Amino acid sequence: MSKLNATLEAVTARVIERSKPGRAAYLDLIARQRDAGVNRPTLSCGNLAHGFAASGEDKAAIRGGKAMNIGIISAYNDMLSAHQPYGRYPEQMKIFAREVGATAQVAGATPAMCDGVTQGQDSMELSLFSRDVIAMATAIGLSHGMFESIAMLGICDKIVPGLLIGALRFGHLPTILIPAGPMPSGLANKEKQRVRQLYAEGKVGRAELLDAEAASYHGAGTCTFYGTANSNQMMMEVMGLHIPGAAFINPGTKLRTELTRAAVHRLAEIGWEGEDYRPLGLCVDEKAIVNACVGLLATGGSTNHALHIPAIARAAGIMIDWEDLDQLSSVVPLIARVYPNGSGDVNHFHAAGGMGYVIRELLDAGLLHRDIMTVAADDLTAYGQEPVLQDEQLSWREAPAVTADESMLRPPSNPFSPDGGMRLVTGNLGRATFKTSAVDPARWTIEAPVRVFHDQNDALAAFKAGELDRDVIVVIRFQGPAANGMPELHKLTPPLGVLQDKGFKVALVTDGRMSGASGKVPAAIHLSPEAARGGAIAKLQDGDVVRLCANDGALNVLVDEAEWAGRMAVPMPSGHVGTGRELFALMRATADEAEKGGSAMLAAAGL
């Protein structure tokens, strides 16, 4: 067994020490919830009768209180391709539960908005806050006290973090996340990217662009690029919260069904009445959170998790920050290149060896904590295997000893990059995240005049007018949680790529988010403090020279110190009316900074 990497060990020790007060309070909470919280034995007859009134053939078992009752929290809708397969899951899961003497009920449903549909639209301002809404909806579903374990049906961007945050406040309950898998591969990613860029240049029309997009996103299942949704699935594996190898099996297959069956059966085995009790709050500890960071870095995952990991951690009483992520990045090699960081998608990644290969290799290199409580086994070793069907029965075999495609997946001894490619940049403009894993190292340092915008659409208009055809750092401000809910600025990726391809030195600086599929253009994102909370980005003016450097971790405006100190911040523009945005004013008013997760709910709760 490999010795644990020294930096990984040191970061984990620092997180544990920093988290001691919050973690102790959290563990006390879940202990009290198990022993004296709301649960079926404490319900009055009227409460209980309401809870099983419509349970059909499961009524006697639920009434008797002898069988484990699994609460299903579902984020199903049939507009979101990743979640469309979940429509039939509850009825299947009830059958699977009966096979092992348990029962299952749908405890509640949560919203599941699709960032792919809302990108660039006003409604994208609701996206990050939907995570808080999902967490609260999860808590409402579980508050009935009818359940001894939780099955969570969710995959996409804010949905898995929201489900986890909500369920962690019921951390005494065993919990397994059950994915539905990615859609089969469609149009080649390079071709999709080519058409998008041609459209940005005005060389093809909307019909050609729509044809390309429809050929890419073409059926049921998760979008196949390695954005936030698929990064979620990776994290659930390295945290041990899936049945091993469940992340990237396509929907509608026998193997997919058997993995769901295995999850339901396992939930019936790990309850508090048995000898193998595995509550969520003990599975998600400091080591599991560090594992999530390592997985993110090793696979070039979504920058959105620089927000989600701290928020998930806080719900379990754990404090982790961007400095921890930066230090881990310095020692975790990049061993996967999945589109947009590479040419192949998650199906190709899975075929090359997938999560079983990644986890085994990182464990052998001393870069993951093996000794965590997982939902499936005594430690993470089992997640270094891959699921297969043998004689129609689910079993596991060792992950491939050698990657099947070294252009997509490599061992830590021969990585694509010696570091994980997610840097903390700091300076007189604040603290931000710079994802270097998809950026040519020659572009890691950009020094250029800025052009300042308050809206990505204004930046697009300037691009189309040719005003950005030069070395430029595009600044988009008033895009943080307190300003407008921190929408992703996905529309900027193609035009900035066009400028870069023309030979200009280009970068983006913003207090907003870029897509989980952000790519080749240097970007300092999630800048904190944000403009709406007095951040220095609100003082920038057109023509100011900014230096962004991932090599030395710097983000500075090169303006005379006296002039900078005396400069006034510009006021925040008004807006946020329409598309329901006015209903989220309370969240904007109370949201905390990006490095803490950008959550209004956690801030208000004092977590």
UniProtKB/TrEMBL annotation:
The protein's annotated pathway: Carbohydrate metabolism; Entner-Doudoroff pathway
One MF term in the entry's GO annotations: phosphogluconate dehydratase activity
UniProt similarity note: Belongs to the IlvD/Edd family.
Annotated Gene Ontology cellular component terms: cytosol
Binding site for [4Fe-4S] cluster: 156, 223
InterPro entries: 6-phosphgluc_deHydtase, Dihydro-acid_dehy_C, DiOHA_6PGluconate_deHydtase_CS, ILV_EDD_C, ILV_EDD_N, IlvD/EDD_N
Protein name, as recorded: Phosphogluconate dehydratase
Pfam family, one: ILV_EDD_C
Domain of life of the native organism: Bacteria
CC cofactor note: Binds 1 [4Fe-4S] cluster.
Domain Dihydroxy-acid/6-phosphogluconate dehydratase N-terminal: 69-380
Keywords assigned: 4Fe-4S, Carbohydrate metabolism, Gluconate utilization, Iron, Iron-sulfur, Lyase, Metal-binding
GO BP annotation list: D-gluconate metabolic process; Entner-Doudoroff pathway through 6-phosphogluconate
Cofactor: [4Fe-4S] cluster
Known catalytic reactions: 6-phospho-D-gluconate = 2-dehydro-3-deoxy-6-phospho-D-gluconate + H2O
PANTHER family tied to this protein: D-XYLONATE DEHYDRATASE, PHOSPHOGLUCONATE DEHYDRATASE
Name of the top EC class for this enzyme: lyase
Upper taxonomic lineage: Bacteria, Pseudomonadati, Pseudomonadota, Alphaproteobacteria, Sphingomonadales
Role summary: Catalyzes the dehydration of 6-phospho-D-gluconate to 2-dehydro-3-deoxy-6-phospho-D-gluconate.
Residue span(s) of domain Dihydroxy-acid/6-phosphogluconate dehydratase C-terminal: 408-597
EC number in record: 4.2.1.12
